[in-house]
Design goal:
5-stranded mixed beta sheet; Nucleotidyltransferase, domain 5; alpha+beta; 12 helices; disordered C terminus
């Protein structure tokens, strides 16, 4: 099975799913040589997920089923398999060089596959699951800058490899919650990679860019240098933590704190903020008591959390050996990136030009629907429509698929036995 579902004589179809802390989104799209067309879109409030990790399988399954059913009804199809974004499991990356002698007079696809497989085996010794292995800058007998060495003569082949790894337990729990809806997870893609490809430009990736996807419970980072993925990491802090800070400091219900964040949340320190006063209900007061605060106070509460999150991400990336002189720009996306003034605050903190990005809409998709919250799932579609990236998305092994089918048949058998 490839990355797409394809019927004879028809365009390929890709189904992409993003299971986040605040929302579950599924997109079904048709891919042909000329354009990508939206067929179906499903969007549900998430449940059973905390900081990208499944904590309640039943609730997570229910939310996933709702998003899948909504997308299937709109597209008029029944999904058999999909591409799943993975943001859980302490995503991390490792870069190294793999090399091996060529077995014949010329480089073959078998030689290239053998080197990449050796890279997988090397990374697998860490005890973590290898999510993706991306090879770039092939070198033949020490000569680099080769995009595709197949058919060239030489003696030793080498390649720069960036491997993305993940803890196996959270990954299995996430895939299990999806597959309990009787759809097969055919491919797994790191969520930071998908988001970055969905909102950054090829020129930005070539010059050096850090893409921060700030979700509700997780902030993920992807760094591209010289056009290739250099680093991936994430921290379990996101927009929900801003909401909880507001709820605690203002002694307000969480739902009200979220409303205050959306309506009055800002990182721009303006004199007029002190004059913009509003009332809100207080937690625990049955008589409907109201308190008052100002937009300036909200800014004072939000600022430290955002600064701390950005500093934490920067510290993690520096710990992985990132050379910040190679990062020329920062791109922000994700639902929490919509805070007013966030780009200015990050620019000051990281001392880099910063912009807030929205993913590019695909055919038949209203621009108003194409919010930053959809960056990951639209990035999955972008990967599927670009052969250069689709080649880096491995299919899950046949043994895994067989185990999943067996698990479904076992569950079906138990259900029949218990019901009749």
């Amino acid at each position: 099975m490839g990355l797409f579902q394809r019927s004879s004589g028809r365009p390929a179809t890709i189904a992409a799913l993003d299971v986040g802390t605040s929302k579950v989104c599924c997109i079904i799209a048709s891919l042909d040589s000329e354009q990508t067309t939206l067929l179906g879109l499903g969007h549900q409030r998430s449940a059973g997920i905390k900081s990208g990790v499944v904590v309640d399988p039943d609730a997570a399954e229910h939310a996933v089923r709702g998003a899948l059913a909504q997308a299937e009804r709109m597209a008029g199809v029944t999904l058999e398999h999909l591409v799943l974004a993975v943001g859980c499991g302490r995503l991390a990356s490792q870069s190294f060089v793999a090399r091996a002698p060529i077995e014949g007079p010329q480089v073959t696809q078998a030689d290239m596959s053998r080197i990449l497989a050796a890279g997988d085996a090397f990374v697998g010794r860490s005890g973590r699951s290898v999510l993706q292995t991306l090879g770039s800058d092939w070198r033949l007998d020490g000569v680099g800058g080769i995009a595709d060495p197949s058919g060239l003569a030489g003696r030793e082949l080498a390649v720069d490899i960036t491997a993305i790894t993940v803890d196996e337990g959270p990954l299995r729990n996430l895939a299990g919650a999806v597959e309990r809806g009787h759809v097969e997870v055919g491919h797994l893609v790191a969520a930071p990679l998908a988001s970055a490809l969905g909102v950054s430009t090829e020129e930005e990736r070539r010059h050096g860019v850090l893409v921060l996807d700030m979700g509700a419970g997780l902030t993920s980072a992807a760094v591209f240098i010289d056009g290739r993925l250099a680093l991936v990491d994430s921290v379990p802090v996101g927009g929900n933590h801003v909401t909880w800070d507001l709820a605690r400091e203002l002694v307000a219900p969480t739902r009200e704190a979220e409303r205050i964040k959306v309506l009055y949340g800002t990182l721009v320190k303006a004199v007029s903020n002190a004059n913009e006063v509003f009332a809100y209900p207080v937690s625990g007061e049955e008589d409907g008591g109201q308190h008052q605060t100002s937009k300036a106070h909200v800014c004072e509460i939000i600022g430290p959390r955002i600064d701390g999150t950005v500093d934490l991400v920067a510290e993690r990336l520096s710990g992985h050996g990132l050379d910040w002189t190679q990062v020329r720009r920062v791109v922000l996306t994700g639902g929490a990136s919509q805070l007013i003034g966030l780009d200015q605050a990050v620019a000051v903190r990281l001392e880099r030009p910063t912009r807030v990005a929205r993913p590019r809409p695909i055919g038949r998709m209203m621009p108003s629907m194409c919010s930053a919250a959809f960056a990951t799932v639209l990035g999955l579609v972008a990967i599927g429509s670009d052969p250069r990236f689709a080649a880096s998305v491995p299919q899950r092994s046949s043994s895994e698929a067989s185990g999943r089918r067996r698990g479904y048949l076992d569950r079906l058998g138990r259900w029949i036995g218990e019901s009749f």
